[in-house]
Each structure stands twice: as structure tokens, then as C-alpha cells.
Specification:
Layout: E1 3-10, H1 14-26, E2 31-35, H2 39-50, E3 60-63, E4 72-77, H3 93-108, E5 115-118, H4 123-134, E6 141-143, H5 147-161, E7 168-169, E8 172-173, E9 181-182, E10 188-189, E11 192-193, H6 194-200, H7 206-228, H8 233-247, E12 252-254, E13 257-261, E14 267-272, E15 275-278, E16 281-285, H9 292-310
Parallel strand pairs: 1-2, 1-4, 2-3, 4-5, 5-6
Antiparallel strand pairs: 7-10, 8-9, 10-11, 12-15, 13-14, 15-16
Helix pairs in contact: 1-8, 3-4, 5-7
Length: about 325
């Protein structure tokens, strides 16, 4: 019997622990299981997080094993090797696919019926790997995708335009990585086309600004890793945002990574595009209008992922 108020986080490194912290603040769950190859690390995180419970919501937080996950509504997988300075997300792929080949069968053995949310990088490749290894329906395996990249995009646009980032509607789609693209053709501020809004705010060098903002979004993880060694707060907030849409059955539109079956002319890979996310997981993939340049860039992004998938035995 699935317990809609129970979740598990597998992997208690920076991203896993920060995600647990973010989830506690959302108050979505009454039970949170932490699992890590290093049991003592999971225990320490559970203790530390539990001590803040009087400031948050009544909730059971504990270090557990795979036997504790069968009734979870959501399992968040952040386990994997970290991206080192100078390493691309795709360099991580072989290390992390091997880790997934040990984790996913432990989950499938337990009759888990909820949604798998993959956060470890390279997220599009690992989402596809999780889907193939688990044999779960495609709706139930979601990658955190470009939800964080899109938030970075909205944040940088909001700074550029001096407007609340919640009023900025804009997506980054494609690979969560170096080949991702900004959908400028659909970007707007409360329904006003982004270029028109820029001019309202006194900005006219659209081409240069677009290039600089996109580059800053794409490279921001490298910039953060160079300065502090890892990125985790932003992605933890993205994770709790996706979890919220699933658990509260919000039908929110989020650019998560999931299996393409002909959408945008793409097949047999997981990539991020705007998607309606609800209690059933991926409810519907949305084919948003793209201009010719964007279509071409999305196709190229998919080709980069296909190259990597071709090297894997899944």
C-alpha cells in the first residue's frame, strides 16, 4: 500500500542532504527515509535534520535500508560520483551508470509503486538508465532535468530587467549540460514578449545580452564548482519543487527529463522539455512552439546524448 506522505532519498552527499533539508521546509511528507552506502553518514544527517523538527513540521526522519522503501510515494536518487573541477557532467557517466546498476535492482525487488526522481548527473543519461534497468512505465521515471537551469535563466533575466523572477516565464530545454538551449522565442514577462519588455526597461542590445545570459546559465555550475567545490542548494530547491507537484498533484508545467517517443521528432532518449507533472509522474509532454534555430539546437542536443547512450550497455 503506497503512503503518499512517505519519501526516500538515496545518496546523502551534499545534494541528497540539501534536498532532504528543502523537503522538510515544504512539509510535504510525514516520513522521510535516508539511505546511503555509508550508513553512519545517513544516520548523522537524519539526526541533524531531526533536531530542526520543532521549527518545521511533525515528521519522522531516519536512516534506513532498501526494506523501508516499498511503500514510498517518491524515491529521490542523488547517489553518484560528484563532478570534479574541469570535469563535464558527461565524464561522470560510466561511474554513475555502474552505481545505478546496483541501486535500481534493490528498488525493483521491493514492489515500489511510486515515482522515481533522478537527480544524479548526467541526469538525462541516468534517467534513461533508470528507466531501462527498472522496466518501470515511462511516466514513473523522471529526471530533475533543466528545472534548475530554467530557474537560473529566470533569475538572470529578472536581474537584467529588475523584475520579480516569478513574473519571468522562460525555459531552458535539452540536455542538462553543455548542449542545453534557451527558448528565447517563447520567453516573456507576464505575457509581454521578452524583447519588448527589454525595450520597456531600456535595453536594446538584444543579441549581446541574450548570448551573455545564456552563457551564464550554461556555465553557472562550473563557476560555482570552481568557487566552492559543488552545487547543491539550487538543485535541492528544484527537487522539492518537483516533489511538490507530484505529491500535491499540481499538474505544474516543469522542464523535467523523461522518455521521448516521437515528441519534437525525438525517440529513445530522455531529455528535458516542458512537461505536465502530477501524481502519476509525467502526465503529458508538451510540444511548445520553437523557431527553426531552436529546433536545430534541440536536435543537436539530442544527438550529443545519443552518442553517449550508444557507448553504454543498457
Amino acid at each position: 500500500m503506497m503512503n503518499i506522505q512517505k519519501a526516500a532519498v538515496i545518496g546523502c552527499g551534499f545534494v541528497g542532504a540539501s534536498s532532504a533539508f528543502s523537503l522538510i521546509h515544504k512539509g510535504l511528507f510525514s516520513e522521510l527515509v535516508l539511505i546511503d552506502a555509508d550508513k553512519r553518514k545517513a544516520e548523522g544527517e537524519a539526526m541533524d535534520l531531526s533536531h530542526g523538527r520543532p521549527f518545521a513540521h511533525p515528521m519522522k526522519i531516519y536512516a534506513g535500508t532498501y526494506d523501508d522503501i516499498s511503500d514510498c510515494a517518491l524515491i529521490i536518487i542523488t547517489a553518484g560520483a560528484n563532478q570534479k573541477p574541469g570535469e563535464t557532467r558527461l565524464d561522470l557517466v560510466h561511474k554513475n551508470v555502474a552505481i545505478f546498476k546496483s541501486i535500481i535492482p534493490e528498488i525493483t525487488k521491493r514492489n515500489f509503486e511510486g515515482t522515481l526522481l533522478i537527480v544524479a548527473n548526467p541526469v538525462d543519461i541516468l534517467t534513461y538508465a533508470a528507466l531501462k534497468i527498472s522496466g518501470y512505465p515511462k511516466e514513473r521515471v523522471i529526471g530533475s532535468g533543466t528545472v534548475l537551469d530554467s530557474a537560473r535563466f529566470r533569475y538572470l533575466l529578472s536581474e537584467h530587467l529588475q523584475v520579480d523572477s516569478r513574473s519571468v516565464h522562460a525555459f531552458i530545454i535539452g540536455e542538462h549540460g553543455d548542449s542545453e538551449l534557451a527558448v528565447w522565442s517563447g520567453a516573456n514577462v507576464s505575457g509581454i514578449d521578452i524583447h519588448d519588455f527589454c525595450e520597456l526597461r531600456g535595453h536594446y542590445n538584444h543579441r549581446e545580452s541574450m548570448e551573455e545570459i545564456y552563457r551564464n546559465v550554461r556555465d553557472s555550475a562550473y563557476e560555482i564548482i570552481e568557487r566552492k567545490g559543488a552545487t547543491y542548494y539550487g538543485v535541492a530547491m528544484a527537487v522539492s519543487r518537483i516533489a511538490e507537484s507530484i505529491i500535491r498533484n499540481e499538474h505544474s508545467v516543469l522542464p523535467v527529463s523523461s522518455l521521448m517517443e516521437g515528441e519534437y521528432g525525438l525517440n529513445d532518449l530522455c531529455i528535458s522539455v516542458p512537461t505536465i507533472v502530477s501524481q502519476s509522474g509525467v502526465e503529458q509532454i508538451l510540444e511548445i512552439p520553437l523557431n527553426e534555430d531552436e529546433k536545430e539546437k534541440l536536435k543537436k542536443s539530442a544527438e550529443e546524448l545519443h552518442k553517449v547512450l550508444a557507448e553504454l550497455e543498457l
